[in-house]
Structure formats: structure tokens, C-alpha cells
């Protein structure tokens, strides 16, 4: 519970325990069709006044060959309606196909400059994958090309709450 007695805004996955191992089918190291599938996510206790949600998923331990650790963006999803309680496994790339409330959701570019989920493929394991969900008091208007940078800039002054899920790969 939060200090004011309310329930805490949280992000969970039925497939990933917090600080648990990221299953192989959600990575670029999976096999065949069981590869690069976006993981299922659920959220609870949205802050009052939430009008949309934005999700940013990053490998926060990615080394930059030129210098310091620079997070690698795996997935950006914006304008998730607050009436939706989660994203199903394999959602990435299917918002139009799923229709209804999912149709207005927009996926941004990952660090491979492609829209949608891109699971990690790493030379060494033990990296942390951070799923950060922002509850916002408005929709984000980012134009046709959604990126992590545009999302993080546009959310400033609109965040009602943040929820984090950490996975280890």
C-alpha cells in the first residue's frame, strides 16, 4: 500500500517475475516462431486522472563501445488507453489487427530504428531489462515517428505515476 492507504500503481507480467529471468521466447535468441515475441504485461491501480499510458523498455546495462553504459531501447508504446488493463503476449505489431481500444495505441522505434518490440541478443548475459510504465494526464502527440527521446520529453509535466518491472537476461 502507498503511504496514503491507497493501492500502489504496479506493472507485472504473468511470464516474468520482478527481477526474474526473461524467458527466451521474448529475446532475439529464441527459436523460430518462438523468438522476439513481446511479453505479456498487466498493470493495476492506475492513478486517478490517468488519460493514457506510455511504456518504455530498455536494457539498462548495455555497454557503449565508445564509452559509458547507454540504455538500449527495446520497445516504446504510447497512447495506451487507461481502460486497457494490459498488453497480451505477442501484441507488438498487432494493434490494428486487434482493433477496438488497441487500435489507437502507437508503437515507437526501438534502437534498431524499427517500430515494435525487439528482444535482446547479448554477447554476455546478466543484463537488466527495465519495463517502465508511465500514467499520464493526457495523450502524447508525437507525430508519425515515435521514439524514446520524444516520449520522455513529451511526458514531462504529465506524469501521474510510474511503475517498473525488472527482468534479467
Would you write up a description of this structure?
- The model has no long low-confidence stretch (mean pLDDT 91).
- It contains 2 helices and 9 strands.
- With 169 residues, it is mainly beta.
- The chain has helices at residues 95-98, 148-155, and strands at residues 10-12, 20-21, 41-44, 52-59, 72-80, 86-87, 106-107, 128-136, 159-168.
- The protein has a single domain (10-168), classed as Phosphatidylethanolamine-binding Protein (Alpha-Beta Complex), CATH 3.90.280.10.
- Helices cover 7% and strands 29% of the residues.
Q: Strand-residue fraction?
A: 25-35%
The level-1 CATH class: Alpha Beta
Whole-number total of structural domains: 1
**Fraction of residues in helices?**
under 10%
How would you sum up the global shape? globular
CATH architecture: Alpha-Beta Complex
Please tally the helical runs, counting DSSP H or I stretches of 4 or more residues: 2
Largest sheet features: 6 strands, mixed
The SS-based structural class is mainly beta
Organism: Medicago truncatula (Barrel medic)
Protein name: Phosphatidylethanolamine-binding protein
What is the topological layout?
Layout: E1 10-12, E2 20-21, E3 41-44, E4 52-59, E5 72-80, E6 86-87, H1 95-98, E7 106-107, E8 128-136, H2 148-155, E9 159-168
Parallel strand pairs: 2-9
Antiparallel strand pairs: 1-3, 3-6, 4-5, 4-8, 5-7, 8-9
In brief:
Pfam families: PBP. Helix content is 7%, strand content 29%. The chain is mainly β.
Amino acid at each position: 500500500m502507498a503511504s496514503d492507504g491507497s493501492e500502489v500503481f504496479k506493472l507485472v507480467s504473468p511470464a516474468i517475475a520482478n527481477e526474474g529471468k526473461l524467458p527466451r521466447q521474448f529475446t532475439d535468441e529464441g527459436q523460430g516462431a518462438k523468438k522476439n515475441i513481446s511479453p505479456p504485461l498487466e498493470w493495476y491501480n492506475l492513478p486517478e486522472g490517468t488519460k493514457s499510458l506510455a511504456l518504455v523498455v530498455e536494457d539498462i546495462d548495455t555497454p557503449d563501445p565508445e564509452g559509458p553504459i547507454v540504455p538500449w531501447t527495446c520497445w516504446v508504446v504510447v497512447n495506451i488507453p487507461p481502460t486497457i488493463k494490459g498488453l497480451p503476449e505477442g501484441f507488438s505489431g498487432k494493434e490494428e489487427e486487434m482493433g477496438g481500444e488497441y487500435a489507437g495505441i502507437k508503437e515507437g522505434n526501438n534502437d534498431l530504428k524499427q517500430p515494435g518490440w525487439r528482444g535482446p541478443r547479448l554477447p554476455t548475459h546478466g543484463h537488466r531489462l527495465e519495463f517502465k510504465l508511465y500514467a499520464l494526464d493526457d495523450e502524447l502527440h508525437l507525430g508519425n515517428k515515435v521514439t524514446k527521446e520524444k516520449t520522455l520529453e513529451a511526458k514531462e509535466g504529465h506524469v501521474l505515476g510510474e511503475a517498473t518491472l525488472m527482468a534479467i537476461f
